[in-house]
Design brief:
There is one protein chain. This protein is an alpha+beta fold. The chain contains 19 helices and 20 strands. It folds into 3 domains: 190 residues, no CATH class; 251 residues, Gamma-adaptin ear (GAE) domain (Immunoglobulin-like, Sandwich), CATH 2.60.40.1230; 162 residues, von Willebrand factor, type A domain (Rossmann fold), CATH 3.40.50. It has a 6-stranded mixed sheet with strand order 11-10-9-12-13-14, with helices on both faces. Strands 5-16-18-8-7 form a 5-stranded antiparallel sheet. Helix 10 runs antiparallel to helix 11 and helix 18 packs antiparallel against helix 19. The protein is elongated and about 155 Å long. The termini are far apart.
Length: 728
């Protein structure tokens, strides 16, 4: 037993002063206790104050007790938004602490669920305990849903960030399939939080910006969201969607701009005997139609320009003997395969084919759209491959410059000789997308570089490659037209190459190509790029005649009616034919151009227009001049470096007739099959009763030599259209 005196002595002894090491140990122990109490991810039962769910219930009770919402029906309608609003303000007052100072930057929906090992079996709970547990889970889920409402499901491939896709967690586990998002109820967004819960925007897998609360990873590599999900089991409710999933999925907006036009009508030769139009050597429509059919849809009618489909194919028309006469015209009259009462007047034009050794020097400026919308596989990547193919086709002393435009225009490559191929290819390969579309500034810079390295008596051309609108600067088609018209007077021509779908401004492409003395093509595949920029490089680059116009006068004594197939967007006024100030299409080296009229001979019984009661007056001598002619064809053109036009004329008589359609040449019959196909796609009356099977029959028999497979591909497109639209 301890002596009382000993105890008194110990009581009176002064306590020794604490040492430095003792203070440090005590301070460290206090910090550990504080961390355990305040930073632990697991809610501690000894922490003062109400829990989050209890505080939400208390606030809701106070709102109802004050009778701010007196009607039960209204209370039910507004319960959810008020609960979310209340929860948000509770979080602002006392944000939950999950460990550390990291900002929340990602939603639970963006992270994988961590699968915990199966726990040991627990004793059965009473019904009362089960009810309490269920209520607590519901409260926890509701609180979490207000914070981490799932975003819209992504619609395409994930983007790479930091070496891993957004569809993978830090541990590499795949995220939940986005399709499951359509099964969830998407809660309305809460007011934007501030501070620790500030919203963060980052690119979703599809490239769209998704805004949400996104937890950052912890030091151990696991995300805060994953820890919450694993430890608290706060998972998004898997309940039936309130609306169909296809309505929740974002719809891709189609912003293609296509010029609408009406099909050429039938004209009475007695009332309106003259037809005038500009030639068209563009091929964009055919490529666009092919792209639509291969995607499983029939093309819109206005995307089908029949003349561009016909002129897509190379034909072996008879050409001129020398370059002094840049082209030759051959006219034939043959039966119409889709109408026994009419005939076809087939006008075939062939340009002089400049030999490679005679080709002039080329000064080319690549004007390349690198705006954000070009970041698609069939846009900038395809464009880069296409222009790299063209570089390999050029001569060593040709010159290449590169201008890009996005938010602003910039020169990527000053005029450089094609002999420095590696330098040019590297400049193309390093192009990256981003920004808006400052097309006007790009065009001006491209023309400046073209003038800087202008080649007299050579080819000076800007080659614009884009997917769509010029949405910065002059973006109106008429303004662009005037800009191009003023620049073409300097001798620099412009061609346009379209890429991709959904943002294609075909109308703008047609406008500036027509007024820039150039061509318009649509490139949907690398094979098409090779056709346009390699196989047809001569006709694409080297112009042999400009402002080419055709005017046909029909003889009413021989022809009662006529209609021009295609060329609706190239129509000219009658007086424009002799006006050298009026711009028209151009013909390149070796180009073939075809125009087809469907004519109704007098007395054939195929007339669609009633004759005039007070029509043609009688003639005293009983006849008219040149009564045996069907028509008189006139063609005007200018040489590339001249401003005064020349005239070529061709009378069409019985000597031009072909007795039966089968006796027409292979190329003639194939071109007629393409004309029928184009009209069929436009759902024109003339071919309403002419089925795809008949078109297939004609095209198959007239396929002929097909070294590049263009005609075989055409046959496959006819089969696709027949399957999609029925063999009407």
């Amino acid at each position: 037993m301890v002596d009382d005196n000993e105890l008194k002595r110990l009581r009176d002894i002064a306590a020794p002063a604490p040492g430095g090491s003792a203070k440090a140990r005590a301070f460290e122990a206090a910090l550990r206790a504080y961390d355990q109490e305040n930073i632990s991810a697991v809610t501690q039962g000894t922490v003062g104050g109400l829990r989050l769910t209890e505080r939400a219930q208390k606030l809701w009770s106070e709102i109802m007790q004050k009778k701010l919402i007196a009607t039960p029906a209204l209370a039910g309608l507004v319960a959810l938004p008020i609960a979310g609003y209340a929860t948000f303000h509770l979080l602002r007052e006392q944000p939950p602490k999950f460990g550390g100072d990291e900002k929340i930057s990602e939603t639970l929906a963006d992270k994988p669920a961590i699968v915990k090992p199966l726990a040991e079996p627990k004793p059965a709970r009473t019904e009362l305990e089960k009810d309490k547990k269920t209520d607590a889970d519901v409260e926890s889920r509701d609180a979490t849903d207000a914070l981490v409402a799932p975003t819209s499901p992504p619609k395409s491939e994930s983007t790479v960030t930091g070496g891993a896709t957004q569809q993978e967690s830090a541990t590499g586990a795949p995220r939940q399939d986005a399709a499951n998002a359509g099964k969830m109820n998407i809660a309305p967004p809460a007011p934007a939080p501030t501070g620790e819960f500030a919203l963060d925007s980052r690119a979703a897998p599809s490239g769209r910006v998704v805004t949400g609360l996104m937890p950052s990873p912890n030091a151990d590599g696991t995300s805060r969201a994953a820890r919450i999900q694993a430890e608290s089991k706060l998972v998004a409710p898997q309940q039936p969607a309130t609306m169909p999933a296809d309505q929740l999925a974002p719809q891709e907006e189609n912003r293609d701009r296509i010029e609408d036009f009406k099909t050429n009508p039938v004209h009475a030769a007695l009332e309106d005997p003259v037809s005038t139009f500009s030639i068209d050597v563009d091929t964009a429509s055919y490529s666009f139609v092919r792209s639509s059919l291969k995607q499983g849809t029939l093309p819109q009618a206005d995307t089908v320009r029949v003349e561009e489909m016909i002129n897509y194919f190379p034909y072996d028309w008879k050409g001129p003997e020398s370059a002094s006469t840049p082209f030759n015209a051959t006219v034939s009259v043959m039966p119409t395969p889709w109408n026994t009462h009419t005939r076809l007047m087939h006008v075939a034009i062939k340009g002089f084919d400049v030999k490679p050794t005679e080709q002039p020097k080329a000064n080319l400026v690549f004007l390349i759209d690198v705006s954000g919308s070009m970041d698609e596989p069939d846009k900038l990547p395809l464009l880069k491959s296409a222009f790299q193919l063209l570089v390999s086709k050029l001569k060593a002393d040709d010159t290449i410059s590169i201008v890009t435009y996005a938010g602003d225009a910039g020169t990527v490559l000053e005029p450089t000789k094609a002999s420095e191929k590696d330098k040019i290819l590297s400049a193309i390969d390093n192009l990256t997308p981003g920004g808006s579309t400052a097309g006007e500034a790009g065009i001006k810079e491209a023309y400046r570089l073209a003038q800087k390295s202008f080649v007299k008596d050579g080819v000076n051309r800007v080659m614009l490659a884009t997917d769509g609108d010029f949405n910065v600067g002059q973006s109106d088609d008429d303004d662009l037209k005037r800009l191009i018209e003023s620049e073409r007077k300097t001798g620099v021509f412009l061609s346009v190459f379209g890429f991709g779908r959904g943002n294609l401004n075909d109308q703008m492409m047609q406008t500036i190509a027509q007024n820039g003395n150039g061509t318009a093509a649509y490139i949907d595949t690398l094979a098409e790029a090779e056709k346009v920029l390699v196989e047809d490089a001569s006709s694409t680059l080297f112009t042999i005649a400009k402002d080419v116009k055709i005017q046909v006068e029909f003889n009413p004594n021989k022809v009662s009616e006529y209609r021009l197939i295609g060329y609706e967007t190239r129509a000219l006024n009658r007086e424009d034919f002799n006006n050298d100030r009026v711009d028209a299409g151009d013909i390149g080296s070796g180009h073939s151009v075809t125009a087809i009229y469907e004519i109704t001979p007098n007395g054939s019984g195929g007339e669609q227009i009633d004759p005039l009661r007070y029509g043609q007056a009688s003639v005293d001598n009983g006849g008219v001049a040149n009564a045996d002619e069907y028509a008189f064809v006139k063609i005007r053109y200018k040489l590339p470096n001249e401003d005064v036009s020349k005239l070529i004329t061709t009378p069409v008589t019985s000597a031009n007739e072909i007795s039966s359609f089968d006796q027409a040449s292979t190329d003639q019959r194939f071109s007629v099959a393409v004309a029928a196909f184009g009209q069929k796609l436009r759902d024109e009356d003339a071919t309403a009763k002419f089925g795809y099977d008949k078109i297939m029959e004609i095209a198959t028999a007239a396929r002929g030599a097909d070294p590049f497979g263009y005609r075989s591909e055409f046959l496959s497109l006819v089969r696709l259209a027949s399957a999609l639209g029925g063999n009407r």
